Amino acid sequence: xxxxxxxxxxxxxxxxxxxxxxxxxxxxxxxxxxxxxxxxxxxxxxxxxxxxxxxxxxxxxxxxxxxxxxxxxxxxxxxxxxxxxxxxxxxxxxxxxxxxxxxxxxxxxxxxxxxxxxxxxxxxxxxxxxxxxxxxxxxxxxxxxxxxxxxxxxxxxxxxxxxxxxxxxxxxxxxxxxxxxxxxxxxxxxxxxxxxxxxxxxxxxxxxxxxxxxxxxxxxx
Length: 221
Known about the structure:
There is one protein chain. The protein has one domain. It has 6 helices and 11 strands. It has helices at 8-22, 42-45, 50-58, 99-109, 188-194, 203-209; strands at 27-30, 63-66, 73-78, 120-122, 128-133, 154-157, 163-164, 169-170, 173-174, 176-179, 184-185. A hairpin with a 5-residue loop joins strand 4 and strand 5. The radius of gyration is 22 Å and the shape is globular.
């Protein structure tokens, strides 16, 4: 049931959710304060179904969350400039003050171009979200900037995570589109860096050939 006397912002948020779904991006409602999921099981309840979206946003003025991996997306979460997020020694380079600067350095190290021609969103905190489609359809695990395989300030929003869609309001401002392009295919050099490290051992094979230890006997040592 749709609530009466909806504000223009309320209408705009429903439109934002429907437009994201029309791109094939699965959406779910976010609390405006804090951007936490407004529903349980948001990963499985995220949808592109227009009727379900209208029912959900008809009940309240929610922000719009997008689940990247089921939507075929990988989102680079570039940290904003802040004095609190000190880079590790290997990233303490002249001119590197945020995740965008770190991505420039990373691209130069791999003799690649900075990926500018893709759907891009500015966060209310001064960060940047770069949207890509994954060439293999397989998502790497999500990691925050400090632990990212790409380097300091370059977080991954992928499997098990979400991003706020452009248009979502917060007490600090809105998420806004700064480049409304189709998400580019994730560049090969970035996809390669996101791969988990290969194991150099074969534990299963070793267990098959290891001599059986009689039960009930203590370990030596």
